[in-house]
Every structure is written in structure tokens, then in C-alpha cells.
Amino acid sequence: MYCPNCGTVAKPKKVTKGSFLIEVFLWLLFIIPGVIYSLWRLTTKAEVCPKCGAPNMIPSDSPKALQAFNAAKKPRRTSSRSTRVTSRMARPDIARDERAKKKKETAAA
Ligand SMILES: [Zn+2]
Predict the structure, then answer these.
(1) Rg of the chain taking only CA atoms, in angstroms
(2) Ligand 1 center to residue 81 CA distance, Å?
């Protein structure tokens, strides 16, 4: 199943709305709200995306999902990564040099 919300392809997680603790609490206090709450939870069972929790997962072979796959397959720039790393590596040295210069200046004054 494909999630149009975040692009995850995974088996949808089965999620029951509400809380088990609230269910137990209602059963202990009053029987009838407990029954109603249990029925409500059973009727609101939904298959959601395991990553983002979106309930609108669609089959991964549906035309909409395939369209999204093709859009995601666009080539990504890989060269920008190396330049970013080198610039980050160079920056601390520059900062250190400037700090050293300032120290010399303050020492001289
Ligand atoms: Zn998702």
C-alpha cells in the first residue's frame, strides 16, 4: 500500500481509535458507556500509514501511486553534498584564524 501523504510504501498499520484504558475505565464505572465505547472503537478501525499515520493509503499499483513514483524518480543532485562538506570543513579554520588575529590585536593593545 502506498501513502500519498508521505510517500511510504508499506503494509498499513491497523489502528483502533480511542484508548484501551478509557474503555476499561468506562466498563468499570458504567456498563452501558463501556459497551457503546467498545462498539464505537470496533466501527472506527482503520488502516493507517505506519510512518505518518495517514488513513488514506492507496494500493501501490494504483495509477495515482505510480504517478507519484515517477515524480519521485527525478534525478537528484549528488555533487552539492561534497561541496557542502568541504565548505563546512574549511569554516572552523577560518574562524580560528580570525580569533587568533583578534587575540594578537588585543595583546598588542
Ligand atoms: Zn504516510
Answers:
(1) 28
(2) 27
